[in-house]
Amino acid sequence: MATFKAVRIDKADKGTTAQLAQFDETELMEGDVTVRVEWSTLNYKDGLALTGKAPVVRRFPMIAGIDFAGTVEASSHPQWKAGDKVVCTGWGMGETHLGAYAEKARVKGDWLVALPQGLSARDAMAIGTAGFTAMLSVLALEKHGISPKSGPVVVTGAAGGVGSVAIAVLSKFGYHVIASTGRASEADYLKQLGAAEIIDRNELSAPAKPLAKERWAGGVDSVGSTTLANLLSMTKYGGAIAACGLAAGMDLPSSVAPFILRGVCLLGIDSVMCPIEPRKAAWQRLASDLNRTKLSEITEEISLDEVQGWGAKILAGQVRGRVVVKIV
Prior knowledge:
Elements: E1 3-11, E2 16-24, E3 33-41, H1 44-51, E4 62-63, E5 67-75, E6 85-89, E7 104-107, E8 113-114, H2 121-144, E9 153-155, H3 161-172, E10 177-181, H4 187-193, E11 197-200, E12 216-221, H5 225-233, E13 235-243, H6 257-261, E14 265-268, H7 276-289, H8 292-297, E15 299-303, H9 307-315, E16 322-326
Parallel strand pairs: 9-10, 9-12, 10-11, 12-13, 13-14, 15-16
Antiparallel strand pairs: 1-2, 1-4, 3-5, 3-7, 3-16, 5-6, 6-8
Helix pairs in contact: 1-9, 2-3, 2-7
């Protein structure tokens, strides 16, 4: 096809514009693998890009969408051939490299992971960047030595994509999961995912004390700012918090007290430039350890022409769990 459908973001006099449009194949960026995109997903970063609420997009025109699953159409990369099923997340897609809300993508073969056996392309995007990030966080906690025997673990932004997958995975492994949310109406949903306790996010929104009562051995935080500072102050001796998001801001109004008086560790989680071997390990664990029934229950499907409206919804906290985008 000379042209294909894509959600195109352009620079405007005031901010940016996003619209479903025809994109010329000759405008695709450099890469040694061309993929027919079948599924993508909606992430918080996608919402920022689609609405222009933050300067996520750093080149124009841009195709939005930070992850996809699809089938290789053409490849000059030695690892991939036409017909291979692949997954791609991060690497600047939708920011500096043309992204996934399109019928076609061209990327570097080194960015791709083979679709794990037993997962469909739709399943992979029901997991998506959010689920992949959640698993990286869980693996980091495991590497630190946190286990179900260590004590409770806390998950913030619990009803969101990262939080939902983190709860499902941690509960399956036998952890006592404490879910922090600002949406009391989602209590039943969180319990069905496996949360043992639910706390209001307001418990973590006041200015943090240097040290507070020890409440959990570890946690997965996608909120940042004061919430993360409170998590650290309430973490048990020798515990750790995996930080993977900044929904409340990039600041961290904390102190060194948790680190030097309780030996707490702050584990930074980056899913964008994560090396390929940890990517493969995380996807294999997701394929084997994530309850597929729970995954289905937390997933909603939309079409490519609905993406723009949903970008505003996810920023407003109106999206629960995961949203997959059917491309073709």
